[in-house]
Amino acid sequence: MAGQGPPVGDAQGLDYEDTEHSGRVVRIASVAALGGLLFGYDSAVINGAVAAVEDHFQISKTVTGIAVAAALIGAALGAVVAGRLADKIGRLSVMKLAAVLFLISAFGTGLATNVWMFGFFRVVGGIGVGVASVIAPAYIAETSPPRIRGRLGSLQQLAIVTGIFVSLAIDALLARLAGGSREELWLGMEAWRWMFIVMAVPAVVYGVLAYTIPESPRYLVATYRIPEARRVLTKLLGEKNLELTISRIQDSLKSEKPPSWRDLRKPTGGLYGIVWVGVFLSIFQQFVGINVIFYYSNVLWESVGFDEGQAFLITVITSVTNIVTTLIAIALIDKVGRKPLLVVGSSGMAVTLGTMAVIFGTSPVVDGQPQPGDVAGMIALVAANLFVVAFGMSWGPVVWVLLGEMFPNRIRGAALGLAAAAQWVANCAITASFPALGDFSLGIAYGFYALCAVLSLLFVLRWVQETKGKHLEDMQGETGRTGTPAHG
């Protein structure tokens, strides 16, 4: 991500003490985190509409999976280009661009006249998601004091799961008002169309509020706009140690080479081991099937006997569970560490996914769908929510935290971009394959996710190193001379 500015991924945060300006810093971080809310909304809005979209456009399960996953293709592209754009045009400009992409996607998908148009605007929204997934945490890190940087950085994940909840709640409300997602609601359009159009509201709010926060002082110093950087730092810090802070930013920029994809390769060839650790953390986060729950849970619960209204309610409850468990992770991550949370999460996911695999795999099949019965169906419902608990307190927030801090300064931007892109590609693969795989056998589908959960546990135990309490500078040597992945 070479460019005039500093690499987005290696933000160090600003070194200052607690002052009366902390409230302003929290507000600025909260505005930036709104990108995460749109990220979550755009990712999950398809849940309440997927069956209606399939019926409206008369498409197969395979095409449905591709249409749902189209946003994830865009997200991978957005994640790759976000760093370069932010270095060239600034952090705030990239936020505003993301808001515009979300706005275009909202109307484009809601007014789509065929599945290809629908898929195209899903890709547009996905690019916005990918950009938001990189720029928000980077900006927050660059404008936050070390003392509260972790908590402020966690606002991104909290915003994502809140966006998922808001999206699913609106889906349920609109479907209820219309009498079903396929039914006409307002202006002669079905409820499922309004589910997408409503996203225009938070997109506009995000774009407008982006004009109320300052540009990253680190970017301003890097582009030689020192007077403007001084004014921003005064707002954030006050007058204390102002010139010292500017000098430290300048020194760090002089000593840091902007990362590029070439920096990820060892002199002897191949990627550094720590880069592979980041990539596989991203892949496992998606291969346990978490987004199957949030993209397809309505279809899943309807297929095993719940009506549409009950399916919407179950999905909303699941999203609330996700928010609560994310708050638990935020409270624990700096106390118990990253690795223990991942170990506990993988274990919980393996058990709950295994339970769902057994229930769906052994239930009698009626009209191509498993019918587990009242007791087994309730066990599957509990297992699904406990799976969300296990993921939400571990792999959901912890992977993003690790990706932001585990790489050495000189490769953090490029490595984070690669890992984020891998995450979206993996998400796309799981999302696109589920309709056909689930149609073949839900037991096999959840059995595969359970196997991935077991593998993720073994991976963490062997390869993931604890980063709790370490300064970012302490990660410098972790590519290692031999390129062997670090492990704890």
Describe this structure in words.
By secondary structure, the chain is mainly alpha-helical. The chain has two domains: 258 residues, MFS general substrate transporter like domains (Growth Hormone, Chain: A, Up-down Bundle), CATH 1.20.1250; 230 residues, MFS general substrate transporter like domains (Growth Hormone, Chain: A), CATH 1.20.1250.20. Helix content is 74%, strand content 2%. The chain has 19 helices and four strands. It has a two-stranded antiparallel sheet. It has a two-stranded antiparallel sheet with strand order 3-4. A hairpin with a 2-residue loop joins strand 1 and strand 2. Helix 2 packs across helix 13 and helix 6 runs antiparallel to helix 17. The longest helix has 33 residues. The protein is globular. It starts with 21 loop residues before the first helix and ends in a 25-residue tail after the last helix.
What brief labels describe this structure?
single chain; 488 residues; mainly alpha; Growth Hormone, Chain: A; 2 domains; two-stranded antiparallel sheet; 19 helices; 4 strands; globular; disordered N terminus; disordered C terminus
Secondary structure layout plus pairing:
Blueprint lengths: L21 H23 L1 H12 L3 H29 L1 H20 L4 H29 L2 H33 L5 E3 L2 E2 H7 L2 H10 L7 H6 L3 H12 L4 H14 L17 H15 L2 H14 L4 H29 L1 H25 L2 E2 L2 E2 L2 H20 L2 H11 L6 H29 L1 H22 L25
Say what the CATH topology of the largest domain is.
Answer: Growth Hormone, Chain: A
CATH superfamily of the largest domain: MFS general substrate transporter like domains
* Biggest sheet, spatial arrangement of strands: 1-2
Question: Uncertain spans, ≥5 residues at pLDDT below 50?
Answer: 1-7, 9-19, 477-488
The best one-word shape is globular
Order of helices and strands: HHHHHHEEHHHHHHHHHEEHHHH
Portion in beta strands: under 5%
What portion of residues is helical? Answer: over 70%
Mean pLDDT: 77
- Main sheet characteristics: 2 strands, antiparallel
The helix tally amounts to: 19
Q: Alpha-carbon distance between the termini?
A: 30 Å
Tell me which oligomeric state these chains represent: single chain
Q: What is the total domain count? A: 2
For this structure, what is the CATH class of the largest domain?
Answer: Mainly Alpha
The overall strand count is: 4
